[in-house]
Amino acid sequence: MTLSDALVLLERCFTGLAEGAPRLREQEDARFALRPSAVWLEYRWYVQERGMAEVFLKWPRASTEQSAAAEATVLRVHLLGVSPTLSQRAGQLLVGGTPSRERIMDLFGDDGVRRECVCLGRTNVTVEHWEPQPGPRPLLDDARFTSLAEVLEAPDSTPEARHEAVQRLADERSPRVVAVLLALVARKHSLMALRVLSEWGVVGAREALQRDLAQVRPDNPADLWTLTALERRLQAWAAIQ
Q1: What contacts 24+ positions apart, CB below 8 Å, involve 10-15?
Q2: Does 134 reside within a domain?
Q3: How many domains does one find in the chain?
Q4: Which superkingdom is the protein from (predicted)?
Q5: Domain final residue pick, 106, 129, 152
Q6: pLDDT tens per residue across all 241 residues of the chain
C-alpha cells in the first residue's frame, strides 16, 4: 500500500473525529531532518469519549515529491482509554487484510498487549489495545511497593535501576503509583515514567515533560522527536479531560 493510499484509508476510517493535538509529521519539520533513520514517521491523535487512538505511520525516507508513491511499511494504532467508537473505527483499518499475527509476535513477543494484525500488500497494519482492563488491578505487596519507590527516591540510583523500578511499579495502575511517578518526573528526567504517565492520561506530568523537552539540544533529534510525541499525547488527553 502506497503512502497516499494509507493516508486515504486513515482519513476514511477516522473521518469526522476530532484530533486532540496537532499532527507530528517528521518530513515537514526541519528539526528532525538530521534524525538518523531510513524512514519518515507521522503521528496523529484522534480523541472521542474517554479514549484516544494514537496513529503511527512509517515509510521510507524520500523527497516530498516521491513520498506519495513510496510504500507505507507500518500503519499502527494504539487504543488508549475507553472509546467504543475509536475501537470500531480502528477495526476498519484491518478490513481486507491478510492476518499476520506471527510476524508481529516475532517483533513484540508476548508482552500482554492484545494486537490485531494484518498485511495490506507489503504494509503491516496493527491495532494495539492499550485500554485498561476491566475490574480492579492487583496491588503490589506493600513491602515490594516501598522497595521500588525507594529506588526512585534514592539520589544515587542509576537510570537503569529507575527504569526497571518504573516498569515494575507500572504493573499496579493505582493512585499511589501515579503519585510516586509524578514525584519522580518532577525531580529528574525519566523517559520510562513519562511514557507510563502519558499512556495512562496523567496530564499532571505535562509540566515536567515540557521542562525536559525544553532542555533537549537541537543536535539530539531522536530525543526531541520522542518527547515531542509524548507531549502531543498528553495534549490530546487534556483535550478530553
Answers
A1: 10/44, 10/55, 10/57, 10/75, 10/93, 12/92, 13/89, 13/90, 13/92, 13/93, 14/44, 14/46, 14/53, 14/55, 14/89
A2: no
A3: 2
A4: Bacteria
A5: 129
A6: 999 999 999 999 999 999 999 999 999 999 888 888 899 999 999 999 999 999 999 999 988 888 889 999 999 999 999 999 999 999 999 999 999 876 666 566 667 789 999 999 999 999 999 988 777 778 999 999 999 999 999 999 999 999 999 999 999 999 999 999 999 999 999 999 999 999 999 999 999 999 999 999 989 999 999 999 999 999 999 999 8
